[in-house]
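Async update (no meeting this week)

Hi team, since we skipped the sync, here's where things stand on the single-chain job. The sequence we agreed to prioritize is pasted below, unchanged from the tracker. I ran it this morning and attached the output directly underneath so nobody has to dig for it. Comments welcome in thread, and please keep replies under the output.
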Amino acid sequence: MRRRTFLLALLATACGTGEPQGELKLAAGEEGGIYLDFARLLAANSPEGLRITPIATGGSQDNLDRLRKGEVDLALTLADSATPDLVALGRVYENYLQLVVRADSPVRNLDDLRGQPVSLGAPGSGAAVQGARLDLQARELHMSLDPAVDALQRGEIAALLWSGGVPTPRLAKETNLRLLPLDGVLPRLKAAYGSVYEHVTVRAGVYGSKADVQTVGTANLLMCRRSLPDDLAGAVVRMLVRKAANLVPNQALGTQFLDVRSLIVTPRIDLHPGAAAEYRRLHG
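Output:
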């Protein structure tokens, strides 16, 4: 057993029949994204003695790499980036795939981006995986959200791809952006990769849009290694269930999954045994 796993097991039993004690490091995501917002809310609502420490990262792929290496204990990821060597504590929120252009851009559809410079997510992000799967045949760049928005406004790139909640605060600050619809690629994505991709709607009014925009949604999963002690897995599940009302980021518009029926639906990924046992204990 790895030293960190052994120490976590000791901490989990340190306080007898009470809540486990110790620190869980949670790989989250970029500043301004739903992952980091959610991680901070989870940290603020942790029970006494159990500390959740959010860590800013590049996103889903970066998070999973850190989790596999034992650098963190928990990780948030898009469902399409998750792999079965790891397990889930629950399905939390929905990410909306957002392909953003300037409002005055001549770009009206995906074909218009062929050969154009486009930021397809930050290095290590889930958006980078999704951007590759969109096959835009654009000139690919990989930038974090803030520099990508700045580059878009300067006309240095034609579009940026972002996977996050709606409204994403950084995008909502701008007054001259619009989203390209992505529902046209959904049948191809579902045929190739299955039910991890879903149809979602960005409602009129978001980012100043006068009409609904149809796009692609992907669930967010809270992941861990199989070696996480059952008591700690159960403690996190109790937070997700009992503190659900306090764990809603501002950019989780209509996408709260924090009820047991949705938490346990983790596409292609097994639940941690301790998490599954706690869900059964709480709700049969």
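Quick observations from my side:
DSSP finds ten helices and ten strands in the chain.
The chain has a mean pLDDT of 92.
Reply here if anything looks off.
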